[in-house]
Amino acid sequence: MILSILSLIIPALITIAIVVAIVMATRSKDASATGIEGVSLARHVWLYLLMLISLGIFAAGIGQLLTLLFDITIGSSYISSIGGRSFDMQRLALGLAMTVIGGPLWFLFWNAARRRIIQNPAEAGSIVRKFYLSLLMVITALTFLPTISGFFQWLLSGVPLGRFSSGELATAIVTGVIWFCHWRISTREGRLTPAAKTIHRWYVYILSAFGLVWLASGIIVFITTTTESLPIWGNSFTGSSFWNEATHSAVSQIVFGSVTWYFHWFRMAKGDVASALRQVYFYLFAITGGALLALISATFFLYSTLSWFFGAVSASAGEHFQFLCWTVPAMIVGTAIWTYHRTLAQEEAEKVEERRESARRVYIYLMNFLGLSTTVAGVVMLFGIVLELVISALSTALTPAPGWWREQLAVSLAMLAVGMPLLIYYWNLALKRSRDEAVVEWQALSRRIFLYTVVGIAIIALTAGSVNIVYQVISGVLESTASVEVLRSSRWSLQAVLAATPVLWYFWQVLRADQRHGSEASIAKKDITLLVSDPNNTLSSALQAELGYKIRLLKTEPSPYDVPIIYSDEEIANLAGEIQSTPSEKIMLVAEGGRILLLPYRTE
Fold it and tell me: What spatial distance separates the first Cα and last Cα of the chain, rounded to whole Å?
């Protein structure tokens, strides 16, 4: 069957290669006569797409041949179990066919791309080429790391021939070579345009994130496996020895995760403080992810501890407290990730002034949402315990099991203990920002999304709960149902109403206050540049707060004879009014000698 498929594929590929070669030769002459800029973007994309496909065929062929070679040399005693000599001949034929066809095709396309760069060196920094290189590096890196990790685990397990994977080793070799070659090419060519730099950054931060996740999970699993093998748990743990498959996997993840993260974060991303994508990595991945890991593990830690304290657990102490094996290292690792990245982000924020404020603001309101959600969930469960106690006192028909409330109380207190400090800290931070930055903060999209989301969810919960309560009451009256049964049927709705009402009332007040201060107003923004010697950004911050939008800041070199000048609120308000009343859309402000010159201008 494989040979019949090849008999169809190979002639088709040869035909495509001949046609492409003719087209490329014709186009090369046209390009040399008219200039590379005249070549269409579609042809550019087409060239690199064919290059990617042909390289995939070539790599698959080499991988097939290497797999066969490793099967014969290393795992020879296991060949008979997968088909014997006939099957090996088919694999050999398929590998040779893909190599013979894919290799020349890829070389043809690669050589055509190289000629384009020779004719126009700026082609090396084109978006299409950088996207091709970055995409290929991401694909090969994310394929290479798991496969080389699997081979490393095999080495750690004592090199058992029965578990040798020739395909895994072949894939690691092929993808590793492809990644290294294209990384060298990308490094040698550099990143010439801002768009090309952005595409390259995607690769850097994707691999940085991947390496960090692998390193963190490897550390957690290694510590968990190590502590579970200790004799302190008595006879409650029935696991295997310490040096098992989980430990091999953890050690492999630690090794390759740390190498990947170090190389991409400390070398390739070094000094990239002006990147917006770096702030996304900071605030929406590393800081938020580390906080989530620590919060989830802390919540489970508190829940399990309180469950034991309240007597809601029937297992032995050795069996129950094994949750410490993963919750404690998860809390430590999550806190370490959060602390390191948050500290570094704050240090870098001072260098790039306020250009990274958007990502930081998103992080603050995301943490507010997490804290509020956790707190409300804990309050809902707490109300549920109270309502169930009331129902049990009023009803004698159904008697709950003794101590039913203990586990629910443990969950509720654990959520409150984690969620409330988080909410209090980050909401106070948001309130401080709204006082300091005024209109800029009130009009921020992340703040408005947070407020509208919270208010919307609260309204839905309150409406749905109220509808169900009214329905249960009317249904109970019509069917002469006991009031206790009506209360029992409405319990979850009552919990939702009791929890949603104060949330809706408070955040509705905040939302309305923002609207009164102009958060929904449409402001005619002008292109304003402020030239000033202002080390603490006092003037620019006050003016931005008054205008309600950001301005461009140019700083003059400080002089030892400069005297700090404090502008009153009235002066800032008058300046903002003068800016808004000026017909020109472009304004240069020059602060000198206690005066601020307003210079309208236009670009020719």
Answer: 69
In a domain, 576, yes or no: yes
User: How many of the other CB atoms lie within 10 Å of CB of 595?
Assistant: 8
Angle among Cα 172, 175, 180 to the nearest 5 degrees reads: 115
Element (H, E) at 430: helix 405-437
Q: What is the pLDDT of residues 574-597, one digit of tens each?
A: 777 777 777 777 887 777 766 777
Query: E-assigned strands of 387-463?
Result: none
Q: State CA 116 to chain mean position distance.
A: 36
Q: Which residue range(s) make up the domain with 192?
A: 2-31+39-208
Q: Distance between CA 60 and CA 233 in Å, rounded?
A: 49
Long-range contacts of 593-599 (CB under 8 A, 24+ apart): 594/565, 596/567
Per DSSP, the residues of 155-221 read HHTT--GGG--HHHHHHHHHHHHHHHHHHHHHHHH---SHHHHHHHHHHHHHHHHHHHHHHHHHHHH
Q: Quick check: pTM over 0.85? A: no
Q: What is the pLDDT of residues 35-57, one digit of tens each?
A: 334 445 677 778 888 888 888 88
The last residue of one of the domains, among 208, 234, 266, is: 208
Whether residue 74 is found in the same domain as residue 196: yes
**Distance between CA atoms of 296 and 327, rounded to whole angstroms?**
9
Lookup result for tokens 């301005």: 551
